[in-house]
Design brief:
The complex is a heterodimer of chains A (about 130) and B (about 425). With about 130 residues, chain A is an alpha+beta fold. Chain A contains 4 helices and 9 strands, in the order βββαβββββααβα. Chain B has a 6-stranded mixed β-sheet with strand order 15-16-17-14-8-18, with helices on both faces. In chain B, strands 10-11-12-9-13 form a 5-stranded antiparallel β-sheet. In chain B, helix 3 crosses helix 8. Chain B is globular. The N and C termini of chain B lie far apart (about 45 Å). Classes of the chains: A alpha+beta (about 130), B alpha+beta (about 425).
């Protein structure tokens, strides 16, 4: 059921264990394999509202497992254009497919230059090793 | 990601760190790790940390028992500074049950719990929970304590100290009962096994062996002589090839191991608890797993007991709460004399100010221990119900708000979420 550990090459990473898939001026956000593994099976996703502003390094929502609650930290600033309603209904999709069906929100970027500050997979994996 | 560490792990009273804020999770985790490493018995921190502002509406350190050290650690070093200070016990290593190697080999996630290193889950709390509701699961509960009292006067001694009426059980029968203090507060909840007229074995919570033994000073602490496995679920007895009536027990061979077989448990399912010698525990465990019984950790044990509203000492009941408030009056024989009975009679007569109720969330949200209830009182246990797939909990509310169907509002990290009082238990198997 749980996914195999991986950190796809086409994504950018934030040190709070969030990923971003950049496509033009929009980004899809989610949490990394490491984050879902640390939390355990997710049972609740408290999403932001569509149209809400999110700021880099700030919380934009929460996910909960049976035993833990975690803030979702946005890797980039922007405005929420879509929430993954399928994950609201079935949060375990994040465990099953953290980079695919388990995406959380899509945002339009208001500070596209912030992308340059994110980590590539190698740097993120190094960060995990150093923990 | 992590902005809060909620429970690592609040089962019993080991360590609970409840920190709200954005940047403090790593530090909070380090505080927990340090506290555990140093042998903290209980640690509760509440605060709010934001970039330019630090609120500490409530900050409570609660380290019980005999303590002789201090821990001081900064949780946050931004523009503000929130620190946690508490006393800790002398450095101690976590104890391991005879099955520790088995848990490690199965890849269990091991956590400190009441001074023991215990499996919280093997695969998934939800899967383990469902296994117990639908087939059979096995729990290592060897951390629990055993106190023994045999010999002339044993019955009379316990009858004058435990809340329930031991005259109602005979040899081979077991009873849920409470050890209360002079104020009627609950020192512990336990099961008394009557082996003979003047011969009892008490099974008590791991975290409370010391206070229980202090209050029942004539008993002998025989915890180290026992390993204890709970095999629970509708198919549990069948898988073991045995049978036992609820709240009875006998000595018997189960899967070729000499056991005390008891029709007791903490899940609301049929099943048994098997007490055996620590040396025999690994082979008994192996034989049980060979019968297709699913190994289950303390995480599932907690969600299972919560669905059926069995109180957890340290969460829902404590020395500060009485059986009358907790809805455990049925386990108190107020027509006999025992420690604290006068206070309980008085409270029953006057009616308690607060009562422990079960509730379910009406909105998508998961209640957690310590959350405020707008109508008064707070959540003492909360989780997602794996069977009902909604947030459920127990909490104290003003007595006039305790009737089933009463609406409640739970403060879920600043958001008011609707809940409703329900009749206990929260989960009941549908009658077939």
């Amino acid at each position: 059921m749980a996914a195999e550990e991986s950190y796809p090459a086409d994504l950018k990473y934030h040190r709070e264990h969030d990923w971003a898939r950049i496509e033009g001026d929009t980004a899809t956000l989610g949490i990394t394999w490491y984050a879902q593994d640390a939390l355990g099976e997710l049972v609740h996703f408290e999403p932001p509202g569509e149209g809400d502003s999110v700021a880099r390094d700030e919380s934009y929502g929460e996910v909960e497992s049976v035993k833990a609650v975690s803030d979702l930290i946005s890797p980039l600033s922007g405005e929420v254009v879509e929430v993954n309603a399928a994950v609201v209904e079935e949060p375990e999709k994040v465990n099953e497919d953290p980079y695919g069906e388990g995406w959380l929100v899509k945002i339009t970027l208001t500070e596209p230059a912030e992308v340059d500050d994110l980590l590539d997979p190698e740097a993120y994996k190094q960060l995990l090793e150093d923990q | 990601m992590v902005g809060r560490v909620y429970e690592e792990r609040a089962l019993r009273t080991h360590v609970l760190v409840l920190v709200e804020g954005n940047r403090d999770a790593g530090a909070a985790g380090r505080v927990v790790a340090l506290a555990v490493e140093l042998g903290a018995l209980d640690l509760v921190v509440r605060g709010r940390c934001r970039d330019a502002l630090v609120h500490v509406p409530e900050q409570r350190l609660d380290l019980g028992y005999a303590l002789d050290g201090r821990v001081h650690s900064a949780l946050y070093n931004g523009h503000g500074h929130l620190s946690v200070t508490g006393r800790i016990a002398a450095v101690q290593t976590l104890r391991r049950t005879p099955l520790f190697e088995r848990h490690a080999a199965l890849g269990a996630r091991l956590v400190p719990f009441a001074g023991w290193e215990m499996p919280v889950q093997y695969t998934s709390i939800v899967d383990e929970h469902r296994a117990v509701r639908t087939s059979a699961g096995v729990f290592d509960v060897s951390h629990m304590g055993q106190l023994s009292l045999r010999g002339r006067g044993a019955h009379e001694y316990l009858q004058s100290r435990l809340s329930n009426d031991l005259d109602r059980i005979g040899a081979g029968q077991a009873q849920y009962t409470l050890l209360t203090n002079e104020r009627g507060g609950i020192t512990d909840d336990l099961i008394a096994y009557r082996r003979g007229d003047d011969d009892y074995l008490l099974v008590v919570n791991a975290a409370n062996v010391e206070p229980d033994h202090a209050a029942l000073d004539e008993t002998e602490d025989v915890s180290s002589e026992w390993a204890l496995l709970a095999v629970q679920g509708p198919e549990a007895l069948e898988r073991l090839g045995t049978d036992i009536e609820p709240f009875t027990f006998r000595e018997d061979d189960v899967l070729d191991v000499r056991c005390l077989v008891a029709g007791t448990g903490y899940t609301g399912e049929r099943g048994c608890e098997l007490g055996c010698s620590p040396d025999d525990a690994p082979s008994l465990w192996d034989a049980i797993l060979e019968r297709g019984v699913v190994p289950c950790g303390l995480g599932a044990r907690d969600t299972l007991r919560l669905e059926v509203c069995y109180p957890l000492h340290g969460n829902d009941i404590s020395p500060e709460r009485t059986p009358i408030e907790a809805g455990l009056g049925w386990a108190c024989a107020l027509d006999k004399e025992f420690t604290g009975v006068d206070a309980l009679r008085r409270q029953k007569e006057e009616g308690p100010d607060e009562k422990l109720v079960a509730f379910v969330m009406e909105e998508k949200a998961i209640p957690r221990q310590g959350m405020k209830i707008a109508e008064g009182g707070e959540v003492t246990s909360g989780s997602l119900s794996p069977m009902l797939n909604v947030g459920i909990g127990l909490g104290y509310v003003p007595a006039e708000r305790a009737a089933p169907e009463t609406p409640l509002s739970i403060d879920v990290r600043g958001r008011a979420k609707a809940a409703r009082v329900v009749k206990k238990p929260i989960y009941r198997r549908e009658e077939s």
